[in-house]
């Protein structure tokens, strides 16, 4: 997650209660001070004042939150959520933090999902309940559009939060396991995903083939189909490059299913965890760049520079965004499963209109 000063902040797992800061000027990582609590798969957002907020956590199912001071590189307690929450989404819009959906406990089985939404502004003593979602959701994707509205994607559906009325509305259904990305010219795109097929009794999630489908949403015109990707791709990391172009990094190219290990057994984390597989099953240097609206996509070579991290005892897992656009136009790619980071410089646009 990129801070206002241009540095990138990551938070480790419960065995490593610290953060790590990447400085683009020195191309190096350094450790922050210790966090108030150990957090596994916490949700991290950048605050308007230049700091950051860590919200809840998985495994321990924390309700607590803490703020990061970028000048002192220290963590401090912040107002807690009304109840423990994991596998949720959080965004900042209109100066407020919105926490959306999730689960009361970190598990893949037998734990009810949540539809509640809460808001918090820096300086507030408590979180404020907002309008609920229309259904219970966990692991939603959430993006903020240029008009301040919020789109969330979950289970093949898209909902929109309207800031003027502070209410949710449905935008319909799209392909599952796709990537939702805000477009710089307005609206949003849903890229890649899975076409579901009927599964057998021992398959937890339906088996499906990755798709190359692209769908575009405009607040005035609704949904339309865009030009397909050059090939199928599921759950790619989408990075707007600051012009009209989007870079799609990594993803899953083929169908996959997950089977129970035994009655009541746990699912394979290597496949079920978004951040674990998104750069594990496809080399992160296999990149597509294009303008979704104009339908121009091209595969590009992505030579990258490895950047050593600062941990002497590396955490098992980072759970932040898998790639971040830096202020100078380079992209920092995180590979959690391999505990490494890469710096990649995207190619320049081919013409002055920043389109292929």
What does this protein structure show overall?
The chain has helices spanning 269-272, 274-277, and strands at 8-11, 18-23, 28-34, 43-46, 52-57, 62-69, 74-78, 89-93, 96-103, 113-120, 128-129, 141-144, 150-154, 157-162, 167-173, 179-182, 188-191, 194-196, 208-210, 214-218, 222-225, 237-240, 246-249, 286-291, 296-301, 304-307, 323-325, 331-335, 340-344. It is mostly beta strands. It has a domain at 1-173: Kelch-type beta propeller (Neuraminidase). Strand 27 and strand 28 form a beta hairpin. The relative contact order is 0.12. The model is unreliable at 198-206, 255-284, 316-321 and 352-356 (pLDDT under 50).
Average of pLDDT:
81
CATH class of the domain at 1-173: Mainly Beta
CATH superfamily of the domain at 1-173: Kelch-type beta propeller
Outline: globular
The structure class reads mainly beta
Q: Beta-sheet strand percentage?
A: 35-45%
Unreliable spans are 198-206, 255-284, 316-321, 352-356
Radius of gyration: 19 Å
Q: What is the number of beta strands?
A: 29
> What is the second-level CATH architecture of the domain at 1-173?
6 Propeller
Largest sheet, spatial ordering of strands:
4-5-6-7
Q: What is the rounded distance between the termini?
A: 28 Å
Q: What is the number of helices?
A: 2
Give the structure's gist in a few sentences:
The protein contains two helices and 29 strands. It has helices at 269-272, 274-277; strands spanning 8-11, 18-23, 28-34, 43-46, 52-57, 62-69, 74-78, 89-93, 96-103, 113-120, 128-129, 141-144, 150-154, 157-162, 167-173, 179-182, 188-191, 194-196, 208-210, 214-218, 222-225, 237-240, 246-249, 286-291, 296-301, 304-307, 323-325, 331-335, 340-344.
